[in-house]
Specification:
The structure holds two protein chains of two kinds.
Chain A: H1 5-14, E1 16-19, H2 25-34, H3 66-72, H4 74-84, E2 89-98, E3 123-128, E4 140-141, E5 160-161, E6 165-166, E7 173-178, E8 183-184, E9 194-202, H5 216-219, H6 237-241, H7 252-268, H8 278-282
Antiparallel strand pairs in A: 1-7, 2-9, 3-7, 3-9, 4-6, 4-8
Helix pairs in contact in A: 2-3
Chain B: E1 2-11, E2 20-26, H1 49-54, E3 58-62, E4 82-90
Antiparallel strand pairs in B: 1-2, 1-4, 3-4
The chains are: A alpha+beta, B mainly beta.
């Protein structure tokens, strides 16, 4: 079940997608039994469920395991293929066990160094095999922060950012993050342990038009779609890329849109695509057409 | 004894009276000193930096306005408009002594 074009535009604007309760209960139960047996984090001791970096995803986990079955859920598998292609490889994984009553709060960070101009990206799959209620240790994250060039926990000074979220959701929910999305573990003052499994995946081929593009021409407006000239008012790729996150009211909003358009150009292969004419103008120094 | 509470506000523009979009608070009094206003629902304790001044905070530093590096004019990175405030708190011990 691949993503549709507007889903991809949402990912480019927000840096994440969420799939609530898509993993069936029997798989959640199997995964909950496996997670306590896995090293925290992976790497300190061998395990059948901790593959080596670079292992093709399809070879990483025993097919009968809860983790393998979670990754094969159509919504999850389709999203992974749409974002990083059909043959991603394993980068690393971690089991996040947040005990009941824990008070530790992780500093805000990105799982990234400062990246180059290369628009390719990894994804991080966050799997919650049981329900996470409010104030029960759900991961904190900042929608729209993924294209900011920062280094790991250099953003830890931001204790609160408008529009940030703390994951709350039903059992069997999955978040898929762009690797640059700012996030942090939270205290768990609840009476229940919180378990979460994270796996990072690298693409092995260009991430161009890997999703279901059958609707592309109907939802992607012409490149001269402009908020202050003529624009389509419908739900389009351009309007999703114009999403305004609460923390980004400043003049930097336009810079954010430019960065999203760069990413969309890469993903779509359409290097004339634009929103509000910024890059088209920049591509024409001296008025060249 | 005087202790220094530190408040960081992140604004949506370079002006001190522009709306805040983020914040952080460090309190070495461990709650014995004055608390921040509670505006609810994870909202910043102050709508603007000027509101913090009205509540007695002293401005220590604001971000410089630096031109972007050549070739990086359209890059985005850290929150650019940071205002740092302090508030000095005098605490007394349980015996009435100022500490």
């Amino acid at each position: 079940m691949k993503l549709r074009t507007l889903d991809m535009a949402r990912f480019v604007a927000d840096g994440y997608l969420r799939f609530d309760g898509v993993v069936p209960e029997d798989i959640n139960a199997a995964a909950l039994a496996e997670l306590p047996t896995m090293p925290l984090p992976a790497g300190f001791e061998p395990s059948a469920l901790t593959p080596a970096s670079g292992t093709p995803l399809r070879e990483c986990y025993p097919p009968e395991s809860g983790i393998a079955r979670m990754l094969a859920v159509p919504e999850v598998a389709g999203a992974i293929e749409s974002l990083v292609g059909p043959d991603p490889v394993f980068d690393h994984s971690a089991v996040h066990h947040n005990p009941a009553g824990s008070t530790g709060v992780q500093g805000l960070h990105a799982d990234a160094v400062i990246d180059t101009a290369d628009p390719t990206f990894d994804i991080q799959v966050f799997y919650f095999p049981h329900a996470v209620e409010a104030d029960a240790g759900g991961t904190r994250f900042v929608p729209g922060s993924h294209l900011r060039r920062v280094h790991e926990n250099s953003v830890s000074r931001y204790q609160h950012i408008d529009g940030e979220q703390r994951f709350i959701g039903p059992a069997g929910s999955v978040l898929i993050f762009h690797h640059g999305l700012w996030h942090a573990g939270q205290a768990n003052p609840s009476a229940d342990d919180r378990w979460m499994f994270k796996v990072r995946l690298n693409p092995t081929a260009p991430q161009v038009r890997r999703w279901d593009t059958s609707d592309y021409d109907t939802v992607c407006p012409p490149s001269n779609d402009h908020l202050f000239a003529t624009m389509e008012l419908a739900d389009t790729v351009a309007n999703r890329l114009r999403s305004l996150h609460p923390w980004c009211h400043s003049g930097e909003y336009r810079l954010e849109v430019i960065q999203r358009v760069h990413l969309w150009r890469y993903l779509s292969g359409d290097h004339s695509f634009d929103v509000d004419w910024y890059l088209t103008r920049l591509d024409r120094p001296g008025g060249e057409t | 004894m005087q202790l220094q509470q530190v408040l960081q506000l992140y604004a949506s523009a370079s002006a001190l009276d522009s709306p805040t979009v983020g914040w952080a608070f460090h309190d070495p009094t461990d709650g014995a000193g004055p608390a921040l206003p509670d505006r609810g629902a994870d909202r910043s304790p102050y709508a603007t930096g000027v509101d913090a001044l009205r509540d007695g905070w002293r401005l220590l530093q604001m971000s410089q306005l630096l031109p972007p590096m050549p070739g990086a004019e359209h890059q985005v990175s850290y929150l650019p408009f940071e205002f740092i405030f302090e508030r000095l708190v005098t605490l007394e011990s349980s015996t009435g002594e100022t500490r």
